[in-house]
Design goal:
Blueprint lengths: L15 H9 L3 H9 L7 E3 L2 H10 L1 H5 L6 H9 L3 H9 L5 H7 L3 H5 L13 H11 L17 E5 L3 H12 L3 E6 L7 H4 L8 H9 L7 E4 L9 H7 L2 E4 L5 E2 L12 E3 H9 L9 E5 L3 H12 L4 E5 L11 H9 L3 E3 L2 E7 L6 E12 L5 E5 L5 E4 L2 E4 L3 E2 L3 H7 L17 E3 L2 H4 L4 H20 L4 E9 L22 H6 L11 H8 L7 E5 L9 H5 L5 E5 L8 E2 L6 E6 L9 H5 L5 E12 L3
Parallel strand pairs: 2-3, 2-5, 3-4, 5-17, 7-15, 8-9, 8-15, 9-10
Antiparallel strand pairs: 1-18, 6-16, 11-12, 12-13, 12-14, 18-23, 19-23, 20-21, 20-22
Helix pairs in contact: 5-6, 5-9, 5-21, 6-9, 7-9, 9-21, 10-19, 14-15
This protein binds flavin-adenine dinucleotide and iron/sulfur cluster (3 copies).
Length: about 600
């Protein structure tokens, strides 16, 4: 165990009497000497596995973000009132921070230390991203070019989040990029899938619009496969990235699943977003529990349906959408039918209802959710005059299959395949995922393309370690409750389809929420040579995560102990530590040092 790794046992709390004894034992001359000593820390970049492991365990929000957003750093910038800086920190790896501030699936919040059972709720990381975007003063700034022109060009097929993220990084790496997009507008599902009441289109256009003047060529209205083939693109460019998403909806594979009145959720949302909403029924049943299903169930209420039901095989707890979306869906009047599986569409000429079977929760599946198990003989008919099936999407591989005889097999991690120069990114390669996952994947694929074109790995992932001052956070900030996102009143939402539901944090609320972040990228470490094991730090620590460790034998790291008289070292369990800084402030020899750590992709050789 390294001194900063998780301890095998809970550390002891120093009692007041022991504290007094230890405090009295402090050698004043030694303390004075320690205070005079110059700070020896320096900035460094590390690719040592221990440093990556430290970030994985200690900065869980950055580690969980598929584009490795430097979360504590951007939240710290908001706390300091610098929303422009916060926006640019986001923008370094994410070309659409404002968009993600509205619709991100927030893997970071699920990992946030503040959400641990005894620490309250996660920081509203995603809403703070929106604060930075909403209140920044300056115009968007495109990240700097990392390398000069390579002389190579890359064709990116698909202008959704994945295609655009790949295009952005490839351009920064010095390659000429042309994006081929079938639809009239860029954005993919941001433009044609997600409804406008969750994501204003001006924001999408503003954030991706700068692609047009950043040297990237955009060709909209070009359907690759019809207007130009993949081999033709490969002849035109040195590499081609397919980022065409999952454009085909899985139908309802049940009897009468194609009766009139049954719609595909994906097609329904695309028609709604294209300004051609289909006529909706009075009593609408939507089957499915993902983003698309929720958007359909909420949209039909805005389009005139009297009743909207969302039917899921398991329970709300097992759905992938955020709790907030579920709550707002319910507030708008959508009713959930949990633990049901559709067996058949009822009706002869058109939909009259759905035959469902009831489920119970069975064993835990591979993603940790309980699996549904059908209850025999539990079928019942649920009346409906419109059914929307939002039960999944898959990639249309025909554009590559038609060209090469069989669909190339893409490596899911780096998007490579057996055809030289051909790559795949985002949902097209991984299957239906989320915006931020598609972008994270595309950035990885862009690096694989760069390596293919240049024969070198030109971006290096490092842990940047910088000296830092003590935390500026007073302890009281640890007790600020999480702020709720203000929402538009339900009647106003239902009255106007485009009325945006989440109205955004006012700036002061955002600033207050930013104060909640512990700044876990701070690394507290004890300079053992100067530690006198006085126990003052342990006495003030609110998390019982600093304390004595006894020698465990030659070559072995020290282990936590109850006894200060056995202390061979004083260690910090940094995974429990909330970076309050109390230990540092009471330490009489100032032997606790603070550094800031973060993961970054830097040009190799830098
Ligand atoms: C209704 C709905 C709601 C969603 N809500 C959320 C949400 O709230 N949060 C979240 O994180 N994720 C959400 N998702 C998922 C998210 O939108 C996708 O994971 C993400 O857009 C995938 O990005 P992509 O670039 O891989 O694919 P896409 O966004 O699908 O983009 C693919 C692009 O390729 C173009 N294209 C396709 N074929 C061709 C061709 N032959 N030639 C040229 N261009 C072509 C398409 O027109 C499109 O622009 C939602 C999805 C849907 C459908
Ligand atoms: S408290 Fe802040 S730094 Fe720590 S995990 Fe949460 S958002 Fe990240
Ligand atoms: S992009 Fe999403 S996952 Fe990454 S930090 Fe922002 S909200 Fe979290
Ligand atoms: S920073 Fe706070 S929580 Fe962390 S070891 Fe020091 S006193 Fe304990």
């Amino acid at each position: 165990m390294s001194p900063t790794a998780a301890p095998p046992v809970e550390p002891p709390k120093a009692g007041p009497s022991r504290l007094r004894r230890r405090a009295a034992a402090v050698d004043e001359a030694r303390e004075a000497e320690a205070l005079r000593r110059p700070v020896r820390r320096r900035t460094r970049r590390s690719d040592h596995p221990d440093d990556f492991e430290f970030v994985r365990l200690n900065v869980p929000c950055q580690w969980a973000c598929p584009v490795l957003t430097d979360v504590p750093d951007y939240i710290f910038a908001i706390a300091g009132g610098d929303r422009d800086k916060s926006y640019l920190i986001n923008r370094a790896t994410n070309l659409i921070p404002g968009v993600l501030g509205h619709v991100c699936s927030r893997p970071c919040e699920a990992a946030c230390r503040h959400g641990e059972p005894d620490l309250g709720e996660p920081v509203a990381i995603c809403h703070l991203k929106r604060v930075a975007a909403d209140f920044r003063n300056q115009d968007h700034q495109w990240p700097d070019r990392l390398f000069p022109d390579s002389g190579c060009t890359v064709g990116v097929v698909g202008g959704g989040p994945a295609g655009l993220a790949a295009a952005q990084l490839l351009a920064a790496l010095g390659h000429g990029v042309t994006v081929y997009e079938a639809m009239p507008r860029l954005g993919g599902m941001l433009m044609y899938g997600i409804p406008v009441f969750r994501l204003p289109r001006e924001l999408v256009e503003a954030e991706i619009g700068r692609l047009l003047d950043s040297g990237i060529i955009v060709k909209t209205g070009v359907h690759v496969g019809h207007d130009i083939t993949v081999p033709e693109l490969l002849a035109r460019h040195q590499a081609v990235v397919l980022a065409t998403g999952t454009s085909l909806a899985r139908g309802l594979a049940i009897p009468s699943g194609d009766l009139p009145g049954v719609h595909s959720g994906l097609d329904f949302m695309m028609n709604v977003n294209d300004g051609r909403p289909p006529a909706v029924g009075r009593r609408v049943v939507t089957i499915g529990g993902g983003f698309t299903a929720h958007d359909c169930a909420r949209s039909v209420l805005r389009l005139g349906a009297a009743e909207s039901y969302l039917c899921v095989r398991t329970t709300e707890e097992d759905l992938w959408v955020t709790r907030e979306e579920i709550l707002e869906t319910k507030r708008e009047g959508v009713r959930y039918l949990n633990l049901v599986s559709s067996m058949q569409i009822a009706g002869s000429d058109r939909v009259e209802g759905v035959v469902f079977a009831r489920n119970r929760l069975g064993p835990v599946g591979k993603y940790g959710q309980r699996m549904p198990v059908a209850i025999e003989g539990s079928e019942f008919v649920f009346a409906a005059d419109m059914v929307i099936a939002a039960t999944g999407q898959y990639a249309d591989t025909t554009l590559a299959a038609a060209a090469f005889g069989a669909a190339p097999r893409f490596d899911p991690r780096h998007g490579t395949c057996e055809v030289p120069g051909l790559f795949a990114a985002g949902d097209f390669c991984t299957g239906a995922a989320t915006v931020i996952e598609a972008m994270g994947h595309a950035r990885r694929v862009a690096q694989a393309v760069d390596e293919y074109l240049t024969g070198a790995r030109r971006l290096r992932r490092v842990v940047r370690v910088r000296p830092s001052a003590d935390t500026p956070r007073p302890r009281a900030w640890d007790f600020i409750p999480r702020a709720d996102m203000p929402m538009l009143a339900v009647p106003q939402r239902l009255a106007a389809f485009g009325a945006v539901v989440k109205t955004g944090f006012p700036a002061p609320v955002g600033e207050r929420e930013s104060h909640r972040c512990y700044l876990c990228h701070m690394k507290y470490e004890i300079r053992l040579a100067d530690c006198i094991a006085c126990g003052l730090c342990a006495a003030v620590c609110p998390r019982d995560c600093i304390g004595p460790a006894a020698a465990a034998g030659p070559g072995m790291p020290p282990v936590w102990t109850e006894r200060w008289d056995e202390a061979a070292a004083v260690v910090i369990d940094s995974v429990r530590c909330i970076r309050c800084g109390l230990c540092l402030r009471v330490c009489p020899t100032r032997c606790i040092e603070v550094e800031r750590v973060e993961i970054a992709d830097v040009a190799a050789g830098e």
